[in-house]
Design a protein that fits this description.
Chain A: Keywords: ATP-binding, Cell inner membrane, Cell membrane, Membrane, Nucleotide-binding, Transport. The complex is a heterodimer of chains A (331) and B (343). With 331 residues, chain A is α/β, with parallel strands linked by helices. Chain A has a domain of 205 residues: P-loop containing nucleotide triphosphate hydrolases (Rossmann fold, 3-Layer(aba) Sandwich), CATH 3.40.50.300. Chain A contains ten helices and 13 strands. Chain A has an eight-stranded mixed beta sheet with strand order 7-8-9-3-10-11-13-12, sandwiched between helices. Chain B is mainly α and 343 residues long. Chains A and B meet through helix 2 of A and helix 10 and helix 11 of B. Bound molecules: adenosine-5'-triphosphate (ATP), iron/sulfur cluster and magnesium ion (MG).
Chain lengths: 331, 343
Amino acid sequence: MPMLDIKNLTLEIDNGTSRVKALDKVDLTVNSGEIRALVGESGSGKSLIVSAISGALPPQFHITADRMSWNGESLLSMSTEQRREIMRRDIAVVFQNPITAMDPSATLGEQLEESIPDELVKGKWFWQRRQSRRKSAISTVHKVGIKHHRHYLNAYPHQIPTDIGQKFMIAMALISQPKLLIADDPTRGMETTTKTQVLKLLTRLNQTRSLSILFISHDLLAISSMAHTMTVLYCGQSVESGRMKMLRKRPLHPYTKALLDSAPSFRKDLPPKSILPNMDGIIPSLKHVPIGCRLGPRCPRAQKDCVITPAVRRIHDHTYSCHFPLHMEKL
Amino acid sequence: MIRILSRYIILFVLTLLVLAAMSFSLAYLFPGDVLTNLTGITAQNDIQRNALIKQFRLDSGYLVQFGYYLNELFAGNWGYSFISGLPLRDEIGLALPATIELASYAMLLAIVIGIPVGCYAGLRSYTPADYGINSASMVGYSFPVFWLALLFILVFSLELNIVPLSGRISLLFDIPDKTGFILLDILLADNIDRSLAFKDALQHLLLPTLAISTITTASMIRLTRRSVIDVLNRPYIAAARSRGLSRWQIFFRHILRNALLPILPLMAIQITTLITNAMIVETLFSWPGIGNWLIQAIYQRDYPALRVGMLAVASMVITLTILIDLFNRLIDPSREKYERATV
Ligand SMILES: Nc1ncnc2c1ncn2[C@@H]1O[C@H](COP(=O)(O)OP(=O)(O)OP(=O)(O)O)[C@@H](O)[C@H]1O
Ligand code: SF4
Ligand SMILES: [Mg+2]
């Protein structure tokens, strides 16, 4: 049974006059101990999935799902208290924009220490507990590769460079020793050495502590080297999902193929907000989503049937949503 | 830190200097004799007149006169009242604290009621409770203060007769003036029944304080509510929620501070309105404060009193504004950290 199991997640955004479906029947699973990559162009709704899972949604977002469960318990129907406990102990989120995700009026140290669940704090008296908190804050900060802990723990979010902020977000997520880490573009804009350091840390935690990771990134090279499975998202629809190797060898969905081809031999990163070289056009805005398969207007294989939303089809653990998939003759 | 402080001090001194210059020029602008306007003393004969002209350097240039004027201001010789003939410093020394007392209780009440209610409305934004609080504060905000004061007098003093109509304390009590604040003075006074006097003073305070604080409370509620709603929509609150913090933790650690920081400078603006309102309400309740005193001075064309009274009120407002701004600067961590650390 998957740890995190999401089926037909639909997220609608109220913009005053009308509702747009920003996520349309998205399927996503994360198994225990796996690293799952979630990829897609900018604006395809990756961060929306993250906020849907984290549960802190603005009032104009409305989510519905056939299933959204954590270890078999439905996240949507459980009490807020239970949900809070899960977010506190089991799931940790690294948000895409670290500086705005931190309280500008509290020091990084305070914010890091408050993320520690009580049972991980040793000691009976408050001074012992304070010391224990400080100690685990310092060791976590070292772990993510920040050396000057004394300086940064007492700094405020606006005083630190972005990459330190990103590392701090990771530290804040890891300090609660979660079972699942959701990392939304954790290495964006980092320089190569720092990036390698962070990715190594995540891989190591996955191997030694069997930390599951939902890894969201534009960096296909990093993804293909560390992820076990991948889900491809296009314009709020999950188009294909399966084991990394399978997807690389034989993508069934035209969009997956275009996405993979856009990074030839995975040598270049896919810069955010870029037009895919192999596919004309850009991702449609939420106000003008095509009916049926949302890839339709850009798809080289599109035919008349594509105005009907393709159902999810499955070959073993490989799922895809396309009426006219690629590579079918070889199967 | 030193740089910030010196910037504030320079600003403060310059503003006061400009104010002093304006008050000095009033002596020339007011109708009547410059010498009398400046000193408050009507010279009886030429000898006294010449002596005063010499003393106040009126025979030299304006700058020298102004220099002497400043000197006198600092030395505490603010001139004499036309009407009472008493030193103005003593009169203001009695009147100003009375106003400050009234305004501070009103502000305190506004903070104690306004901030919690505003937070509640903000946290419950767009629910019936919020709409109720919001409309109530809108109504409170739009009352003219003098009308509200008159209404209070009419209902509570004249109709229901539960609180006294005017003044600061019943004449039965003889409270020696030590701090200028009536409640403190009562606590310091001996040979009176303190609890009775205290009760009496509170009854006198009740209506004017309520009248002034209604408007300030209403605007405090609105400011706090708006600010809390703003903070609630920030990504860091969503991030804090996703870390599984409880609602109270989120409120006290992340919402409260961030919501209050931006409204502190707005509160500084409120203080000016508050003092103006206090001065208006004073005249209605015959509260012996600076507003009442200035009105009397206007009625009686007491130009020296007006000149110094305005300077005193303006200096007080400027001092408060600058102090709050400085305080705000010191506690706001998004300004420079090291400035904060050296406080
Ligand atoms: N609060 C919001 N109100 C309205 N629309 C929103 C809101 N947040 C996101 N969207 C829209 O939802 C879509 C998906 O946004 P999302 O941030 O999830 O993209 P993303 O895949 O994370 O992109 P990136 O790779 O750039 O982070 C976008 O079209 C965006 O305009
Ligand atoms: S369903 Fe049609 S439009 Fe959509 S990807 Fe498949 S072929 Fe292209
Ligand atoms: Mg995103």
